[in-house]
Design goal:
The chain is mainly α. It has one domain. The radius of gyration is 18 Å and the shape is elongated.
């Protein structure tokens, strides 16, 4: 289906619901790790990105297709603007220890998931959610194993806040 074609109410409900659900799934991981951006935040980020994308991707009048340049500008705006929300969860203490990078990245990737849901790119959504969860669930174990193997000095600044 062409994402700029007029969609019916069922397709709209599907896209928006899928966006909220996939954002909430990613948010659950953050919630379980006690992070500031959890189920509600990431569900809303994903839903909002899907809404903005769907609004601009829909033809404004019958028979006139949406301008792909407008859709591209909205996507750019979403991805840039969401960076400010992500920046709000990144903290650095006096010793240089940085926390919140993973949560900020999760916020950013949830915006991208919302865009994909809004455009109805279901294969991209499915593969992306799987890979996101794989990274979030196994990433810390891989980091710890790499530190042991390469005997990395843990004294310097890092993002161990997962």
């Amino acid at each position: 289906m062409n994402p700029t074609e007029t969609i019916g109410i069922q397709q709209m409900i599907l896209r928006l619901s899928a966006a909220a659900v996939v954002g909430a799934i990613v948010g659950l991981n953050r919630e379980l790790h006690g992070k500031a951006a959890g189920v509600r935040t990431l569900g809303l980020v994903t839903l909002g990105a899907a809404m903005a994308t769907m609004i601009t991707a829909q033809p404004q009048t019958e028979g006139i297709a949406a301008d792909p340049n407008v859709v591209g500008r909205i996507i750019q705006g979403i991805m840039t603007g969401i960076g400010f929300l992500g920046a709000g969860v990144i903290l650095r203490d006096g010793s240089g220890h940085v926390t919140g990078l993973t949560t900020a990245a999760a916020i950013w990737v949830c915006a991208a998931l919302g865009i994909a849901c809004g455009l109805g790119y279901w294969q991209v959504v499915g593969v992306s959610v799987g890979l996101i969860l794989l990274v979030l669930l196994l990433g810390r174990s891989v980091e710890l194993a790499a530190e042991r193997i390469f005997k990395r000095d843990r004294g310097g600044p890092s993002d161990h806040g997962v």
